[in-house]
Specification:
- It is a single chain.
- With 235 residues, the chain is α/β, with parallel strands linked by helices.
- It has a single domain, classed as Rossmann fold, CATH 3.40.50.
- Helix content is 28%, strand content 29%.
- The protein has 5 helices and 11 strands, in the order ββββαβββαββαβαβα.
- A hairpin with a 2-residue loop joins strand 3 and strand 4.
- The longest helix has 25 residues.
């Protein structure tokens, strides 16, 4: 079984066949999961912000979500997201498949009662599939490598914060780092594909407005999902 996790905008398209909704109880809380099929592949899908769009980034229960994946037999998860672009040389909109991340603020972990250390990171085999698929099917430019900087949210970043983090990363978001960490802790392979729909606050003089971000993200969301669908067929 393959897992997909994404923001509500990216999952507004109902593409699963024989879909049914379940709640999975975990030691970390309850996770809402949609089960179904895509081209014969069994899929478990989680909307990270909840089906009612009422879960802001800093309140997402990453351990519950990925423990639910694990309990359902998922060993590979593809994340979808929207990220702000930190590089002036990239023409947006574009897709990016990050190869590394910086997450200095999240406390998401499944190891609350034991001393366990993992080496975090995205899964290279899944990244390779996403890159090859995106280059073949995406009408948008594809950035094959990049560092994802995770901020805590739910607020957007200040100009001063962006001026600092742009020296160390290529895109900025609020979820992929935590997801990658918890996935690795549970032995689940995880990679993410992000649409870069806007420049981060202050890049190229950009003024960031949340409603504008949502509008741009919706325009590119289906491209991201179509790449993931094709990638699932290859996997």
């Amino acid at each position: 079984m393959i897992g997909i996790i994404g923001g509500t905008l990216l999952l507004e398209k109902d593409f699963l066949e024989e879909k049914r909704e379940i709640e999975v109880s975990t030691p970390f809380g309850v996770a809402e999961v949609e089960l179904g099929y895509w081209k014969g592949a069994k899929i478990a899908l989680i909307q990270r912000h909840g089906k009612r769009k009422n879960r802001p980034p800093h309140m997402i229960n990453h351990p519950a979500n990925f423990y639910a994946f694990k309990s359902l037999g998922v060993d590979k998860v593809i994340g979808l997201g929207s990220a702000g672009c930190l590089r002036e040389d990239i023409q947006i909109p574009a897709l990016i498949i990050p190869h590394d991340y910086i997450d200095l603020f999240s406390t998401a972990t499944v190891f609350n009662d034991s001393l366990v250390y993992i080496t975090p990171g995205f899964d290279e085999e899944l990244r390779k599939v996403l890159i090859e698929t995106a280059k073949e099917f995406s009408p948008l430019p594809v950035i094959e490598r990049g560092v994802y900087f995770q901020t805590r949210g739910p607020r957007l970043e200040t100009k001063a914060e962006i001026a600092m983090i742009k020296n160390f990363a290529d895109c900025v978001g609020m979820t992929a780092g935590s997801e990658a960490t918890v996935a690795k802790e549970l032995g689940i392979r995880y990679a993410v594909i992000c649409s870069m729909d806007n420049y981060a606050h202050g890049i190229k003089g950009e003024k960031v407005d949340y409603e504008d971000i949502v509008r741009r993200a919706r325009e590119n969301a289906m491209i991201c999902l179509e790449v993931v669908q094709k990638a699932i067929e290859r996997i």
